[in-house]
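Subgroup meeting minutes
Present: P.N., E.W., G.H.
Scribe: E.W.

1. P.N. recapped why we're keeping a running log of single-chain structure predictions: easier to compare across weeks, and new members can see raw inputs and outputs side by side.
2. G.H. added today's entry (840 aa).
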Amino acid sequence: MLIPLKWLKEYTDVQCGAHELAREMTFTGSKAEGVRELGADIDNVVVGRLLTFERHPDADKLFVSDVDVGRGAPVRIVTGADNIRAGDVVPIALDKSTLPGGKTIKATKMRGIVSEGMMCSIEELNLSKADYPDAAEDGIMVLDPSCKPGADIREVLGLDDSVIDFEITTNRPDCLSVLGLAREAAATMGAGFTPPKVLAAGLETCCFSDAAEAAGAAETTGDAATAAKTSEIVGVEIQSPDLCYRYTARAITGVTVGESPDWMKIRLRNCGIRPINNIVDVTNYVMLETGQPLHAFDARFVEGGKIIVRNARDGEPVRTLDGDDRALGADVLVIADANRPIAVAGVMGGENSEILPDTKTVIIESANFNGTSVRRTARKLGMRTESSSRFEKGLDPNMTLPAADRAAQLIVELGAGVAAQGYIDVYPAPRGPVSIAFNPERINALLGTDIGRGDMLEILRKADLAYNEQDGNIIAPTYRVDMSMEADLAEEVARFYGYNNITATLSPGTTTTIGVLTGPQRLKRIALDALLACGYSEIYTFSFQSPKVYDRLRLPADSGLRAAVRVANPLNEDMSLMRTTALPEMFKTISDNYSQRISGAAFFELASVYSPAKKSGDELYDIVNAETVDVAAAGEFLPEQKSELTLGAYGSEHTFFTMKGVVENLLGSLGVKGFRFSQCADVPYMHPGRSAYVLLANKKVVGLFGEVRPEVADAFSLPDHALSGVLSLDALFSAADTGRSYDAPPKYPPIPRDLSLLIGSGVPAGDIMAVIKKCGGAILESASVFDVYVGAQVPEGQKSIAFSLVFRSGERTLKDDEVASRMSKIVEVLGKEFNATLRS
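Output recorded in log:
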């Protein structure tokens, strides 16, 4: 919400500047996103009137003009613009002036004549054609002839102001207005607040602070300056009272459509709204001022002289003010006349009833609609507007009449029309103020403060919350839709007392609780520390995914990873699915880093993945895609969320074996026992000869890692030999054992043995190691690979692999024949299972 400071100060006597006000209001809950000083980079630019305008004697395309700048003798300006003439009033950047972008203007000799400044276009003043549609696009900006020479251009164009950008929370729709934020500013700074009063011909007095009382009338009489009555011009019927809580209509006769005055256009522009004409501008102005959206209909086009608020008929057409034809559904609320829709309620008016240059009678609509209905309609039609963004938050129905009165007042004051007598007000279920029990002791207990009762009442009074002497309750006005319970009163006290003034205190009681991590949280931290220690960097990526990534991963049509949960209202097609794997996001991270000429990097993500629940859940098949499901039937089950660890690395220092070491270190840190690796040749996105499954002791696959298949790497623009991995955190945590035991230093000596084998090149070392450990029994203390060789003196199709074994007993000194017996058994079993032989 953009709020010009000058407009805000019309209703409150706050004396501070924009930056201080923004800071203080942020502390009280009205967060200011920033402050923009309009015209701060413009200096010494004034209004000038052209006294003469003649062609340069020595240049065909230049002109010389003597300009009255209100400083005694005129100044001479040389220009190339030909859209101006003597008598025009234009912006003049004098000698040593400054323009937006840091541009400095100095006196310069041009073809023998000194130009003492420069005439400015809208572009040079950092203005846009949208703000000034009548301004020349490639020429000098021509100002209103009434502008006084010498006047500061910032004052003339309304650039001598500051605009504060407030972020309004959804529970405070009353602050989507100048009045609402002026009220907050007054309470924050301890200043007065003075809302405008409505005093116009054809209207009875109505003060905004007395809105609820004024809403009780059905039709006013006022000054009979015109014989016309609103009730004679239009009628109102609400056929959908569950979606329209109140509808107020006022008629304006004798309308003259034209331009709005400069002060109104400047305020609208500074709030980000383009001026159109005086009638439409008044409705926008009142919306910004009060927060109540208005709409103006040309009474000629309201067929049957009646406004009907109803649901659209299925497929009913309407052309909205943006020129688009729209087919409406039965769930869309419309404003209709006797025959057709003339507006989409709360969103946008219809082109068939818009204000035209020859409009003479206007019907001002000020209504209150169901916020949820407006939000759904705006989203369905793809046309979120200033009006819909306010209605969808839930507005005060008691503001419709004051806003209509205010619009009528402004139209009368601008000389754009005459207010008809009275108004039409259909209000089936009036809403009254909310009474909230006031208990200072409870509020102090909630806040941990010791604020006196009188101080609390004073704080609440500043927030426009009245104290009822009869029952001791606090009365919240209807515009405070966020006030309903004692906790809301506590919040009001806290924010105006000052959160920074509330000292930290322990919870009352005899004992205090100490927060602890849950089991999964603790294990996640262990995993995080282990991966960081290995030089991996943590990343976070979006959980949304494009359906196109499945083809790039080369997944088959019936792959379980294609059974994704579809987002009901995606931002776009590329974010339409909840991810079933985080690999595409990991690949994008690697590709982005590689494209920035980073030679090598390693990443991990503790990711959440989502899938339709299976009838029998097994993390194995979700990760490695070894199980297929019926993708078409995936929506029959509720989605489930799982935790996965995704790894990614590239660069010369990262190989299959380094990633294997990272996985071993991770599983060791988690205390996972008996894990091993096996060849992975059937996963479509992994290299068939340079990847491996991770298996637990029970042979359950919990993940995989290795090089990315070259075709997939090309599809994701990955460097050669890029690595990736996926492990189920849920499965690893189930197998984790972080308990630690103490082993005393050994008393008896070890017996080392080396075992060198010739074995088939396709036999994994992990399978050989599993046989060695099984046959070695309890006296085998450790076993490790220390050499692998393929080449000369090794038969084709085989490899030489050597293991270092250490035997030791914790109870006695081993004998050589005991170790020899175990070694013989190991060789025998390896020979039977893998056709292995000892290498001589």
